[in-house]
């Protein structure tokens, strides 16, 4: 009997072809093949009802650009969250159950980080990612169907596809069984007290007059651990002092 994936990702997008290479390569492809996660792409345009398959329109009150239409987005969303309609849900909550969340990728959202990745991965088994495009999204869809707006940085992209891929990649790595050596997850940058990872070296021992630190060659594991912890803080202070705040 097949097991349900630990997380089902449902991505609502106007450009599903952008995900083809990403979802079918490297760790994501392996995770999907093992049945640990599933990736489902929904073409928003399929839910437009007019002959031109219109998904956007000009904003009321004037303004630049075009907005994705609430009714088209609603039907696309409803196709993957069929348990409860937006009208039945509390305002601002598109949840169909405690295990499902709808996220809009938006520059107005909370800044995505490793802590949020852990929270989402451990809490939800069905994650719906809505990729905005054009000038934005009709606010009524956000009010009725979106649980959380998330941003990957303080800059503007053409659409939400790349941010959605970032969320999928980051969270998939945290699913048990996806990364072969799960201990390596706890040693990565930002995982231990929010600090950057210590410097690492491999063969050759000397390269262009640069040598590997002696402490790493002596076999004293306690000394190595102490050195690594010191280097984590030193590196963070030098490269990302904002993390220490």
Quickly list its features.
elongated, Trp Operon Repressor, Chain A, three-stranded mixed β-sheet, 10 strands, 8 helices, 2 domains, alpha/beta, 245 residues, 31% helix, Alpha/beta knot, single chain
Summarize the structure.
This protein is an alpha/beta fold and 245 residues long. The protein contains eight helices and ten strands. The chain folds into two domains: 7-172, Alpha/beta knot (3-Layer(aba) Sandwich), CATH 3.40.1280; 189-244, Trp Operon Repressor, Chain A.
Mind explaining what this structure looks like?
By secondary structure, this protein is α/β, with parallel strands linked by helices. The chain folds into two domains: 7-172, 3-Layer(aba) Sandwich (Alpha/beta knot); 189-244, Trp Operon Repressor, Chain A (Orthogonal Bundle). It is built from eight helices and ten strands. The strands form three sheets. The chain has a five-stranded parallel β-sheet with strand order 2-1-6-5-8, sandwiched between helices. A three-stranded mixed β-sheet has the order 3-4-7. Strands 9-10 form a two-stranded antiparallel ribbon.
